[in-house]
């Protein structure tokens, strides 16, 4: 992983490079930021840079030396990973190494990652992952090995907030009395879930959300055949996360109709108009229409609607600052500018809950016509509640 292949984060990259140049490599660092911003890739690029035998003049790894070639495949013997795993029949006391092949595949297929993607990648959508206590023995074992080839041993702990308490306490001990020439990098989304004692002994690197423009450039790179306006809109609504933007595009690509977001837009705006004017017969027709499209489209509709409800509420509360705070496409904005007054502090939570509940019902394969009719009628009631 080279710095130059990761979008944005100029300041952080400079800091990291300088720490190596000035010989001030910290033995424990915390990369903190939202999912889909490239934290893990930055951590790997940093480790690769530390270990590269032929660093370039423009502050990057060479990509071709003996060390880099192993880093390119994530098989360097002094690079270790820890990440959440799940219990299964095959792995009753799982540790990261049990999933290492899958892990390499997952990390190498894209530079941006989020936690749910990892769980679905290892086929465990319904289970919760964890970094179990047995992992700490494994960390101690790996770090007590002599370095094979590099000056530093690197231990990257991804989603370190998923460490259970006993693993966290053992890790704390290691951070307090670090084995020499060892570099711990904790990659974290939720700072408050990390032991404060760990937090206070570790150097913080705050990874910002990506800018709209950075996301746009990377989308254009990964999806050269997608319409430019779709790319622009996806970057705009992603709120700084590349994985969110990418999912939006994939959803459009994978749907039966090439205009999935238009479809969701039509379904959502029709529902809101009919619900507000309480046209019951028309609402029943709307239910029949959405149920024709199948489960995948139904699920996509909920994701879309939840976002629209949220954005309309924000727009309503701060119409004067509309350009700064909303993440809406142009077409969505034209609708929302008039509609947003109906989503207010007295009904937004209930609306959000009703849509989330219906979404969960659809995911559990409940009968869709009943779920949607119920949702349509509740929406009609809730939209009548005034600010
Ligand atoms: Zn190199």
Concise summary:
By secondary structure, the chain is of the alpha/beta class. It has helices at about 10-20, 40-50, 65-70, 100-110, 115-120, 135-145, 165-175, 195-200, 210-220, 230-235, 240-255, 260-275, 280-290, 295-315, 320-325, 330-340, 350-365, 370-385, and strands spanning about 30, 80, 155-160, 180-190, 205. It contains 18 helices and five strands.
Distance between the termini: 51 Å
* CATH architectural label of the largest domain: 3-Layer(aba) Sandwich
Q: Could you give the order of the helices and strands?
A: HEHHEHHHEHEHEHHHHHHHHHH
Helix content: 40-55%
CATH-assigned fold name of the largest domain: Rossmann fold
What strand order characterises the main sheet?
A: 2-3-4-1-5
Oligomer: single chain
The number of distinct helices, counting runs of at least 4 residues, comes to: 18
